[in-house]
Amino acid sequence: MEIIGEIKKIDIRTIIESETKKKFNARNTLSECPFCRSGSGKNRTSAFNVNVKDNYFKCFSCDTKGSAIDFILHLNSGWNDKKAIKYLANNYLTDMSNQLVKPILNQFEKTVYAIKCNNIQKATNYLEQRHINTTVLPKHAYYYDSLQHAVIFFDSDEKLINKRLIEHENRNPKALNKGQLNESIYSALFKPDLDALYIHEGVINALSMPEYSSIALFSTENKVRNTNVLQRYVTGKHVVVAFDNDNAGNKCFDYYKAFLLSNRFNIKSVRKLVLPGKKDANDLLCSGELDKFLKDKNNYELIWEDILSKPINGNSENKTQDNEEYFFYKENRCYYAKETIKGKPIVKKLSNFLMEIIYHLTDGTKDSRRIIKFQRNTGEIVVMELFSSELNLEKFKKIIRSISGKGLSFFGFTAQLEYILAFLQDHEQRAEAITQLGYQKEFKIYSYADAIITSDNQLLFPDKLGIVNCGNHNYYLAPFSYTNIRNESYNGQRKFTYKEGTLNFKEWSDLIYKAYGINGAIGIAFLTLALFRDYILSLTGFFPFLFLFGDQGAGKSNYINFFLHLFGEPNNGISLLNSTDKGFSRSLTQRKNALYYLKEYTNAIDKKTVDVFNYPKKAIMRSN
Questions:
Q1: Which residues of 298-336 are buried (b: 16+ CB within 10 A; e: fewer)?
Q2: Would 313 be classed as within a structural domain?
Q3: Are β-strands 143-145 and 65-66 bridged in parallel, bridged antiparallel, or unpaired?
Q4: Do 287 and 335 belong to one domain?
Q5: In this model, does residue 99 exceed pLDDT 60?
Q6: What is the pLDDT of residues 291-313, one digit of tens each?
Q7: CATH number of the structural domain spanning residue 538
Q8: Which CATH number covers residue 24?
Q9: pTM, two decimal places
């Protein structure tokens, strides 16, 4: 307890500056939040500061807050209080660290301790034989196991012992793992100040590139599912996935590509380092080709780039040619047009901004939407959705002038705007707008608010713009788009999310039946029907309702919540007595093949609301 008291006395600014390598200003505000990155980018203010009096930090953007111990815990996912306290004591209370009570070690921890006590010279010799410059590697990057004659690598939480056997027979594996493989990261080569991060499948490859920032997965079998494990490494980075170019490496790449492209990570770009067949980074190092290979841009395949922060190309390569072909050209981040009037060339400035149509969101209507990025000539960027009907001159001018703080203006005529839009539309990408959650028969996918499951059982998440890239097709999930983040009309759909569970259907249904008996079986059968509601309707022309009866406190609400949990966070249901027919209908059209909870059905319900039932669009669970 004395140690904790002493830690709480340390100026928390000293700890945070030391851990993040960033400085506080005179107002005790850090230049950038290490967790949500507020403060990064142009003209943005950090929301991360400290209360000097109480020695307490808080980010008002992501609401991360607490003491020095809390800061270390947030910075190192997977650490417990004991590990954080020990770290702070060893690094900031060196004169008191010996007062820490030594814990009783289990067998695994004893093995780790024993390995750390070994002389590492034989491991150093092995690594140098593989042309790895051990003199520039950080301390504790590797160890030596004298019993198995192996180079040892620990993950960041010391829950995995990764052994690289120095001598092995061909029939035996050259690497072995003991402990927790999944969710484990090798991070000794991670450099937080560098903008790019390489992700390797093996530690030897990370050690082969000591001047770069790298992490390693130890094996293609390592499946990181907890976003917090990768969050601190990939946030704000240009990520390069550098797996072996073989079946196992490519399969592993597909998994991490989908994982990284989910909207759960704030990253700048994802690229694939396309290694030669049957060669990895260490093979290239040994042959003297690695440095040249890494610097060749042709060896990198761009998978995804954060379009929100990428600048629009501000100048035409050939202004005269563009003006003759498209009737406008770009210069100094503005649109211009050159005309000849009475034999004299006249240059007219058309705007103080450039724009780019990122996606055309096709939805089967004439008034479809487009995601458009605007960049003012001073550099500020804004992204918004516009309907096709808003792209006429009069409405367009009003919209761009209403963008708070950007000061965008278009000075040209209708024809000149149409020339620019026609050019942009010729180069736009298309994305199918998913307007209703559930199974999409036309595309053979199942859509959640924040994910899509493909016909071959791939789970794909949307990027910041709500776009899911699925082979040759793009799909748009509006509730999780950056442009709709403050649109409250999507709040209901945002609750409908994919969450990986620990139960399969059999185990879940057994529990429901044990809890509710025959009533549980009826609920399971009704749920199964609801999943195929559209198909049943096409065959029969109707769909049944499930009525729940019982005294207050009989368990109806708990029963309902068990089933509603499968379709998002349960709510208080839709009150038929207090809902308008329009609001009721709007709620029902947001998703299909799902359950809704409608409560308090009585004869006093408005006739217009009752009429909605005459055209059954949804599987509905009702409670009396």
A1: ebbeebbebbbeeeeeeebeebeebbeebbbbbeebbbb
A2: no
A3: unpaired
A4: no
A5: no
A6: 999 999 999 999 888 877 788 88
A7: 3.40.50
A8: 3.90.580.10
A9: 0.60
